[in-house]
Write a structure and sequence with these properties.
Helix content: 40-55%
Radius of gyration: 34 Å
């Protein structure tokens, strides 16, 4: 009897436990359905962009549209969600580093915003060019003829520009300069970077005919422009705008390649003719670009070059602080001056022995080429370029640094980086504006070479410092299309070279000689890309002082 009661009790307990499990499983299923429903109908406007359409959406789609007004009214929550998916935006323009898939509605909204932002950008460009505000003027002004005006041409490579600004901030005498940044892109991040400069006076100007503001009209590309590779007969049959103006290679213009020359010529005309603060300025303008890097003594060396140019008079037009290391002819540029010739021979020999002892100490130091195997040839050559010229002054030994420089005919491929000249030299160039603007080459430096050889009465002459003080760090750009562009590695190598050569910086004087060569400079065949008459006319308009570019 007791056994039967126990069996009944076990059966009752098991049955109750089974019923409990069934009820809980059903409850869990209902919770999962509710959770799925909540995910499909969020209350706070938060949803996964990949979710399937909800039942409410299907119901709304099944209802016929009553009017265009109800169709155009977006749901506030959906509108807010769409904006959150747009990524970071600058002046209502999408950040190019972020991407998303847009619906037709979002594309239409972005198009409207782009049109509004384009209007805003044009207005900002006009205001900035008209205002000509010089920042930090109260700290470092006023501008005098001893001020060095540094003009930097900027596109959109902010990483390179940061490196340039950093190098400028370390330069001795930078507080006595005016930095002018000439932009062909309106970008708030770039503007904030420039405005953050606190070590010198700064001024921003903006090229008003950029591809950003004229994307689908000249000087950008429009639908009526001829295809680049179309034959002239085909282009004439298409009646495209520039059918009659192919370049010397038979190609039609590409807007992205014409902008740099336009910008360079506009910028030069702007700083020499249209800046109120510089209307009476008779000092030096130094031209740099966003992918340049300057040594800490570049201003010191420039002033030494200015003093030497005064000694040469009209024989020198341009001062050049930089050259391309890869193309540079690395050879020893300094020789040891073995004493003063007026010294007695015994005394001179004694000083020579002292100089030899110093050289032996230098040679006994660890070899730089063994420490830096990745640039063994370049580094040893750079050290030769920066080699000290030890010499003796009358009356006793003196060990001084001396930098060599040479005067020669200006050649675009060698002397287009870190160029400095005054209004006098600019007037020679601008007098040949027609020759510059109509020459069928999209490169400003090749065009200036053409001007020097074919327009000027005397060819441009340059003084170039043999130890460069301005370096090119750009791995990517118009002329550099590498699959992998690592600016950091280039910067680190350059910093190592500069650090190693640092003890040769700030020379006491320059040793200037004229490079006499019998070989005549011949201009190679132009690169083309500049056959379109519209480019000629726009370029010429920049030269006219009465042309309103603001």
């Amino acid at each position: 009897m007791r056994i039967r009661k126990l069996s009944c009790l076990k059966f009752t307990i098991l049955t109750g436990f089974a019923i409990f499990i069934v009820i809980n499983i059903k409850s869990v299923g209902e919770d999962e359905q509710n959770l799925q429903a909540e995910e499909e109908h969020p209350e706070n406007g938060k949803r996964n962009i990949a979710n399937l359409r909800t039942k409410d959406t299907d119901i709304l789609e099944s209802v016929p549209v009553q009017s265009s007004q109800s169709k155009e009214k977006p749901d506030p929550a959906e509108s807010e969600a769409a904006d959150s998916l747009a990524g970071e935006r600058i002046n209502e323009l999408p950040n190019p580093l972020s991407s998303r898939e847009d619906s037709q509605v979002n594309q239409s909204q972005d198009k409207q915003k782009s049109q509004l932002s384009l209007k805003d950008i044009l207005e900002k460009l006009k205001e900035a060019n008209k205002a000509q505000i010089i920042h930090n003027e109260s700290l470092f002004g006023p501008i005098t003829n001893d001020t060095i005006v540094i003009v930097v041409q900027v596109h959109d490579r902010i990483k390179y520009l940061r490196h340039l600004i950093k190098s400028l901030s370390l330069a001795a005498g930078i507080d006595q300069t005016l930095l002018i940044f000439s932009h062909d892109v309106w970008d708030e991040e770039l503007n904030e970077l420039v405005r953050s400069i606190d070590f010198s006076q700064t001024l921003q100007i903006f090229y008003p005919f950029s591809l950003q503001t004229h994307k689908h009209s000249f000087p950008g590309e429009s639908e009526s422009d001829c295809p680049r590779d179309a034959h002239k007969e085909k282009a004439l049959s298409l009646s495209c705008t520039n059918a009659a103006w192919p370049d010397l290679h038979g190609h039609y213009r590409e807007a992205q390649f014409t902008q740099t020359k336009h910008h360079w010529w506009w910028k030069a005309n702007q700083v020499f003719h249209n800046l109120q603060a510089l209307k009476d300025f008779q000092g030096y303008f130094l031209f740099l670009e966003e992918d340049h890097y300057a040594s800490e003594d570049f201003l010191h060396v420039l002033k030494l070059m200015i003093n030497e140019k005064n000694n040469f008079g009209s024989q020198v037009d341009i001062l050049c602080l930089g050259t391309y290391l890869r193309k540079f002819n690395f050879r020893a540029n300094s020789k040891q001056t073995r004493g003063d010739p007026i010294m007695p021979s015994r005394e001179r020999q004694r000083h020579e022995r002292r100089l030899n002892a110093i050289q032996d100490v230098e040679k006994s130091s660890p070899g730089i080429s063994r420490q830096l195997l990745w640039v063994s040839e370049i580094l040893s050559s750079v050290l030769n370029v920066f080699n000290k010229d030890l010499y003796l002054w009358p009356g006793g030994p003196r060990y001084s640094k001396r930098q060599k420089a040479e005067v020669s005919e200006w050649i675009s491929s060698k002397h287009n980086m870190g160029m400095a000249f005054t209004r006098t030299e600019w007037n020679k160039m601008v007098a040949c504006s027609s020759s510059f603007c109509k020459y069928d080459d999209y490169n400003w430096d090749w065009s200036l070479q053409h001007v020097s050889l074919n327009c000027m009465q005397e060819k441009l002459q340059v003084m170039m410092v043999k130890g460069p003080r301005v370096f090119h760090i750009g791995e990517c750009g118009v002329h550099h299309k590498k699959s992998h562009c690592d600016s950091d590695s280039v910067i680190e190598k350059l910093k190592t070279i500069i650090k190693t050569a640092n003890k040769y910086f700030f020379p006491d004087s320059l040793s200037v000689s004229r490079l006499n060569t019998k070989k005549k400079t011949k201009l190679k065949k132009a690169n083309g890309g500049w056959g379109d008459k519209r480019d000629h006319w726009l370029c010429m308009n920049f030269t006219l002082s009465s042309f309103n570019m603001l």
